[in-house]
Design goal:
Elements lengths: L2 H24 L14 E6 L6 E6 L5 E4 L4 E4 L7 E5 L7 E4 L8 E3 L1 E2 L2 E2 L5 E2 L7 H21 L15 H18 L4
Parallel strand pairs: 1-8
Antiparallel strand pairs: 1-2, 2-5, 3-4, 3-6, 6-7, 9-10
Helix pairs in contact: 2-3
Length: 188
């Protein structure tokens, strides 16, 4: 292909793409001015006894996944964009994630609301159920594991649980303590 022919072909392609691109941009979609996209929301409600949480959401397009900071599971979002599930853990940090890139609301952090005990009072979320508590548990557990290994490699660290921390802290503490102990004592 000669240079003038190639130049004419490229020029005609550029002109037609600009023309078509302008036409596409100028043509509004039907109902775009009257239809607003509803906001998606997610809430986490701890049970009155603090042993479980109920997670609910609305305004989501399926498919979706729920992330708790450690694992991800599929959500059953109905045709109206709602979901409801109960988890038997005290964690309150949940995020709803989009599965497809073209979905609105790629991620939505769930908000914790207080549970209704039926007595007119509310039960606060148990302490230690957020990422900072998990991180603190890991740090403290690692130090305890290393200290236990320095004393004796025959006795692994055991937590002396106090109520100032929740299950999230203590689970992270134990995992980190065991890992640090095993690494220091060459048991892993």
């Amino acid at each position: 292909m000669s240079f003038p022919t190639r130049r004419a072909l490229v020029t005609s392609l550029l002109v037609s793409s600009f023309a078509l691109g302008g036409a596409v941009v100028a043509a509004p979609t039907a109902g775009a001015a009257t239809t607003a996209v509803p906001a998606a929301s997610c809430t986490v409600t701890p049970s009155p006894d603090g042993t479980s949480v109920t997670i609910s959401g609305e305004g989501f397009t399926p498919p979706r996944k729920l992330n708790d900071g450690e694992s991800t599971q599929d959500l059953n979002v109905d045709a109206s964009g709602h979901f409801l599930l109960k988890r038997f853990q005290k964690n309150a940090d949940y995020t709803v994630l989009a599965v497809n890139e073209d979905q609105p609301f790629v991620f939505v952090n769930c908000k914790v609301v207080k549970s209704d005990t039926g007595t007119g009072t509310t039960t606060p979320t148990p302490p230690g159920n957020d990422r900072s508590e998990r991180d603190k548990g890991r740090t403290d557990g690692r130090q305890a594991g290393l200290a236990a290994a320095a004393r004796n490699c025959d006795n692994s660290p055991v937590a002396k649980k106090d109520p100032s921390h929740g299950n999230t802290y203590w689970q992270a503490w134990q995992q980190a303590a065991d890992r640090a102990f095993d690494n220091a004592c060459n048991k892993g």
